[in-house]
Write a structure and sequence with these properties.
Blueprint (H helix, E strand, L loop, with lengths): L2 H24 L22 H10 L1 H4 L14 H15 L15 H6 L6 H6 L7 H14 L7
Length: 153
């Protein structure tokens, strides 16, 4: 066998083995697999069932205690990303814990209108959250009506 080919194959074997070992070591990190859905304590008073239905499709996985944990959320490093996104989403505001203050919730409609929410990587992995323009309009309007800042009309 040609020495160049042999060196290439040896390098390829080392790279594949190293990648496999790194992937295996990632699975030992405990973060991202303790999926929990705490109880639903209180939801906002929705302006319409349509708003809630669209929010369930596009928002609830990260902004509620009713997360549907996909299979890939059990495999690092994707599990780390999913856990971080759910933790961050619930921290910003949580539709299932509406008894807590939610200072940023009234910006939700604006986030939908400006295409900031749901984020592109979420829409890619969850086609049901890739809303039509009409659905985005309905969701943004409904979130504005449901989550208006205290004192707003």
């Amino acid at each position: 066998m040609n020495p160049r080919v042999r060196r290439f194959l040896r390098g390829l074997l080392v790279a594949v083995t190293g990648t496999g070992a790194l992937f295996g070591a990632m699975q030992l990190v405990p973060y991202g697999r303790a999926h929990s859905n705490p109880p639903v304590v209180a939801e906002p008073k929705w302006d319409s069932p349509r708003t809630r239905e669209l929010a369930v499709r596009a928002c609830f996985d990260c902004h509620s205690n009713e997360t549907k944990w996909p299979t890939y959320a059990k495999v690092a490093p994707l599990s780390w990303v999913v856990q971080r996104d759910v933790n961050a989403g619930r921290e910003v505001f949580n539709f299932s814990e509406w008894h807590r203050p939610h200072d940023l919730a009234h910006y939700s409609g604006l986030s939908v209108r400006s295409h900031g929410m749901p984020p592109p990587q979420y829409r890619l992995a969850h086609p049901e959250a890739d809303l039509t323009d009409e659905e985005k309009h309905d969701l943004a309007r409904g979130l504005d009506a449901t989550l208006k800042k205290p004192g707003q009309r």
